[in-house]
Design a protein that fits this description.
single chain; mainly alpha; three-stranded antiparallel sheet; 62% helix; globular
């Protein structure tokens, strides 16, 4: 059920229907927290998705603690070199950059780049699947995996976003 709620909320977010999306994200978050636990990567995906909504609305103070918590959960659960951690690093870095904290953002971006480069070296068949306009790739986060979309040229910044969908 949480997956369906998350996916519908993501659709609403993409359509700019933020008021419709928020309660669905929050409900999915509550369901997954109970079902998976608050230290599960799937719960971190839910936190990330709600943070993306807040980011899209310019509610950076609301998004930041969610990005930080998702990052901490993924790092603990998946390890410091997992590609899903790079997603959290990039999303949080985009927020830092948007709020005038470029030096902090640059550190996270460099770390994410290193994680992705290491993953590409270790998984040559998947090399280059991490960036590109409108590129989709499959991610191991969450229950049953998921799909992530990178838009606006595949680079993070004021006009780009990364969206995670549970499956």
């Amino acid at each position: 059920m949480a997956t369906g709620l998350n996916n519908l909320a993501e659709l609403y977010r993409a359509q700019g229907r933020y008021a419709d999306a928020e309660p669905l994200y929050k409900r999915a978050l509550a369901i997954d927290e109970k079902a998976l636990g608050s230290d599960h990567p799937g719960f971190a995906t839910d936190l990330n998705n709600l943070a993306l909504l807040y980011y899209a609305q310019g509610r950076y103070a609301d998004a930041e603690p969610l990005y930080k918590r998702a990052l901490a959960i993924r790092e603990k659960a998946l390890g410091p070199e997992h590609p899903d951690l790079a997603t959290s690093l990039e999303n949080y870095a985009a927020l830092l950059r948007k709020t005038g904290r470029g030096d902090e953002a640059a550190k996270l971006e460099a770390r994410a780049k290193a994680v992705r480069a290491k993953h590409d070296r270790e998984n040559p068949a998947k090399q280059g699947r991490w960036a590109g306009s409108g590129l989709l790739f499959f991610s191991g986060a969450g229950v049953g995996g998921g799909v992530m979309a990178i838009s606006s040229g595949g680079t993070l910044g004021s006009e780009a976003s990364i969206s995670t969908f549970s499956s």
